What we know:
10 strands; six-stranded mixed beta sheet; alpha/beta; four-stranded antiparallel beta sheet
Amino acid sequence: MKEKNLSIQAIGITKKYPKNKIGLQPLSLDIKQKSFVALMGPSGCGKSTLLKCLNGDNPATLGEVYINGLSLIDNYDEVKKSIGYVPQDDIIHRELSVYNTLFYAAKLRLPDGTSNEEIKQRINKVLKSLKLNQHDQGDSQHQKNIKHKKIKELSGGQRKRISIAVELLTEPSILFLDEPTSPLDPETIDSFLKSLQDLAKEGTSIIMVTHKPEDLNYVDEVVFLGVKGHLVYKGIPETITSHFNVDSIIEVYSKMSDLEEVKKNYIKPKETSHLLNTNPKPTKSKAHSNLRQLYWLSKRYLNIKINDANNLLLLLLQPIIIGGLVSLVFTEFRIGVLFLTAISAIWFGVSNAAKEIVGELPIYKRERMYNLNINTYIVSKVIILALIALIQLIVFVAIIHFNFKFNTISEFPETYLRPFWDAVGFLFMISCSATLIGLFLSSYFNTTEKVMTVVPITLMPQIMLAGVMTKLDSRIIEILSFFTLGRWGTEGFARLQDDYFKTNNLGAESIIIPEYNPDGYHKNDCKCEATNALDQLALHDESLTDQGILIGDLFNSITANSIAVLVLSIIMYLLIFISLSKKDSI
Length: 586
């Protein structure tokens, strides 16, 4: 029977994994209001698993958890607002200042209409409660208010407190902490745990996973797990050694690492529950203020990018370096230039986005648990990354345009990249679609290393199936090319050149400089027969089309090429959404 006077009540909860692996044996426990509880036990015993079962990050497969008298599963949308949760990894962006970190968190979590003045008061309150509103220690001549420091400039202990401060902004009644003292030195631990004691006295129940015996000096109660997820002790810290008939807490760890010892002397009768949640999926209420959330997500992301000056500089140098190399390698405006221009637009999009989700995965997962809408999250990324790509493309196209405009050859004086803004617009569309590819990779894989390993594999088909490196001379190769931006980018860009020259009656012979001709290289005798860009690209071999081997010019317009890119973009967006949805806790 659930009790409303408890912060947490767990009844017969069990955690099972695939292949019948048990992460947490059946257990029940109660946690009182305003209590400071330590979850302890040997490595791999299920401490973090129990914590996540209690807060909904990874719900129990059997049993039930009540938060303040309400079912965690059945009332998750309501209950989650009472929960604060700081996982082992930081849930704050290192590029932001302390104040901006807390300000954006408040804007994203607090109700609509919360004034900036109230947010400021809440920030000051949580900083004071965590003893972070004081000046830094050191030379008084150089003291600086911590609110104005960037997160990356803080110590490990300060970063952990800022993560907790983010959670305290919403005034949760329960705070879950996963090994918060692990990166801290002894002096910092003392100050940190005393601040948690004060929070508990003020009314916040705190459940903290820890493996440090000295942390017992600060908590009100201990929940100790033995190997394989067995609950072996729940009580006050002072009696834990006598309960296990040992002289020190270290010996408790040693005894509880022995499965036979645990089974023989310390396993309580298994408890069952009236409720089986094999795949708990509570009904979530509709998200509110999505436009407001999108605005603050976008503004925060833009602030992060601007503050990361070194990385932003590298992004802006990319079009200059690549454009300069293209101008250096190619002395004339050829089909190869069109191809590399399209591939560069794809590269900008993929490389800009590849690390943007995986690099902040702990932050995403925590904000998603609270109230983050997946669509607003994806769109906020696309907006800012598209803005960066647009700047890159304007610079890049300008370099290509002016280089070949001022370095034309006498035989083809009108041949250089045109029209300028149409080219920028088309390449921008390609780059935005490529951005979605990068975001999909970033959402699918769980480490940056894996993402960066797959990026070259993703880009190779864009190059190989564009119809320039090798001809599309079989049905399977042609069909595969339909799923690459390299194909549509190169073909569409070639169409832009052709359409411009036809519209302005400049003559087909001036559209693109041919590579070779039967009588020799054009610089030597200029006996070549110039053709338009699409003819030189030669994606469709008419004889193979007539034989039914190729589909041919099915998408025979710039509009059709753009639609193909749009379809690929929609597919990528859906894949990102599905990938992020699979990361949901409940």
